[in-house]
Design brief:
Layout (H helix, E strand, L loop, with lengths): L7 H16 L13 H18 L7 H4 L1 H18 L11 H4 L7 H20 L2 H15 L1 H9 L3 H12 L3 H5 L6
Helix pairs in contact: 1-2, 2-6, 4-6, 7-8
Length: about 180
């Protein structure tokens, strides 16, 4: 992904978090998407990066694997994508059906991971890391994706999209300031 070896522990944490997410989506209604695709991948990557830095799972890549460095790198990738494809947002990859209609080179990946990580960071900044992973994710099986989102963050998914787009237009230093240290 970034031209250097990923920590195997970080990679395992990302995949393990998908198991945790899926365990809380089993009971959702057929017409409820549960987790938007960008949040499924973005939150798994965010937590894996956070935990890897906190536990110093670097595999010899200390400077490149720092949580803040990686989040900054991914923020720049997300911003570059926005410059290249103005108007393209994570809303376009909310579901796999929508994602498959996005055909620009690399767009799906950077929307799901880089932009999804920052959407996760933004939501965590509204509440807390614990709230996101221990309250929001488990509530999906009880309330469904949309209602769990509204209950957890006190805004609809459409309100989120509008507020997150405004956030993505801020200066990098303002965006980076929302990150909590591992």
């Amino acid at each position: 992904r970034y031209g250097y070896e990923e920590s195997s522990s970080k990679f395992a944490a990302h995949e393990y978090f998908h198991i945790y997410q899926n365990a809380h989506q089993l009971m959702q209604a057929e017409d409820d998407i549960g987790l938007p695709l960008w949040l499924e991948e973005g939150s798994a990557e965010f937590l894996a990066l956070y935990i890897a830095d906190k536990n110093q799972w670097t595999d010899g890549h200390e400077s490149k694997f720092n949580f803040r460095n990686r989040m900054n790198e991914d923020l720049q990738s997300a911003k570059d994508l926005r410059k290249t494809y103005p108007g393209l947002t994570i809303r376009e990859i909310e579901t796999s059906e929508l994602r498959d209609m996005v055909t620009c080179d690399g767009c799906q990946y950077y929307l799901q991971y880089a932009t999804g990580q920052w959407a996760t960071a933004w939501l965590i900044n509204l509440t807390s890391l614990d709230h996101f992973y221990k309250v929001y994710i488990p509530s999906i099986s009880e309330y469904g994706g949309e209602k769990a989102f509204e209950n957890s963050f006190e805004l609809t998914i459409d309100e989120f999209y509008a507020e997150f787009e405004a956030f993505m237009n801020l200066a990098t230093e303002t965006q980076m300031s929302i990150l909590q240290e591992p």
